[in-house]
Amino acid sequence: MSKEGLRCAALAYRTFTDEAFPDIPESNLVLLAIIGIKDSCRPGISQAIQQCRNAGVKVCMVTGDDLLTAKAIAMQCGILRGTLDEPANTAILASEFASMSEADREEIAENIVVMGRSSPDENLLLLEALRKKGHVVAATGKGIRDAPSLRQANISLAMGIGGTAIVKECSDIIILEDNFTSIVKVIQWGRFLYTNAQRFLQFRLTVNASALIICVVVAVHSHEIPLNVAELLWINLLNDTFGAWALASEPPMDNLMRRPPVRKGAPFITKLMRAKFVAQVSFQVSALLYLNFHGESILKLENKSLDQANKVKNTVIFNCFVFCQVIDLSPLCLVSQHHPVFDCQVIGRFPFPAFPYLRNEDHI
């Protein structure tokens, strides 16, 4: 019955007199029946565990139940794969794990998926072994016996309904629904915010670097600035407003749970971000500098006065600069996913508002 994931309970009786009533009648009982209580998985657990596996997150079951029962339940949920007799992953008794040397525990800890008959002290041994191997460990629990593990974990999650006050107090996150699928949502939202923060930072760096290079080069060459203070403030105002709007309003994308996790200590600005930054800044600076130095011939302004020609040219440069940022934020850039260096950064699904700006409307 344990192999079927059933918790066993025996019903028995014994005849005795009132005078000879024993305190705990544990012997000479007549067995009536053995009842198997099924502890079934909640709906959606198997899909949630598969999502974690796709995202590079390993799920382990550490329980005080018998190992056979724990293995059967883990098979039903998708935590353990293979057969009960020959599991594809490691299932072990907590006492066996605790009897190993520290080096052996660290060696086998990465392979453990199910650990049965585990006490709070043995939970800590597994957690510490995983942390020493460089893993980021998240622990869940609801009882007082789970409190030590929650305190030592990198991320602790407590059950909001069944969790005790002590467990909630020492946890980083409280799961209100007591459902494992909520943990998957936490991972997805965390990755979404991290990715959006990277994208927004790259977008802001691209805008500022492009504007700085263009203004410095033109100022050194022509002793004038194509983008004045009011124009730069206008761009920064809209960048900040719509960037924050996108970060706060967009739901996370499903493909985030198909990416590997970011390793601990990884730089926030990645090599891919630097490559995209260089490509986008190079394109914007090259295009706008070419327009600045050859704008009179391109826009056919040879017959206009120098002051009038500069106003028209700088107006076009400003609107082209804004349009470059529209391209960076446009959802149409999603089609470029197979070319990551030239993939425009999508901050939400809201296109950047481009309003034609004229320095002097009389000249256009």
Automatic annotation (TrEMBL):
Cellular localisation: Membrane
Coiled-coil spans in chain: none
Keyword Metal-binding recorded: yes
Signal peptide: none
UniProt cross-references to InterPro entries, sorted A to Z: ATPase_P-typ_cation-transptr_C (IPR006068), ATPase_P-typ_cyto_dom_N (IPR023299), ATPase_P-typ_TM_dom_sf (IPR023298), HAD-like_sf (IPR036412), HAD_sf (IPR023214), P_typ_ATPase (IPR001757)
Gene Ontology cellular-component annotations: membrane
GO MF assignments: ATP binding; ATP hydrolysis activity; metal ion binding
Segments forming domain Cation-transporting P-type ATPase C-terminal: 225-329
Kinase recorded as keyword: no
Pfam families reported for this sequence: Cation_ATPase_C, Hydrolase
Alphabetized UniProt keyword annotations: Magnesium, Membrane, Metal-binding, Transmembrane, Transmembrane helix
Source domain of life: Eukaryota
Protein name as catalogued: Cation-transporting P-type ATPase C-terminal domain-containing protein
Organism encoding this protein: Brassica campestris (Field mustard)
Organism phylogeny: Eukaryota, Viridiplantae, Streptophyta, Embryophyta, Tracheophyta
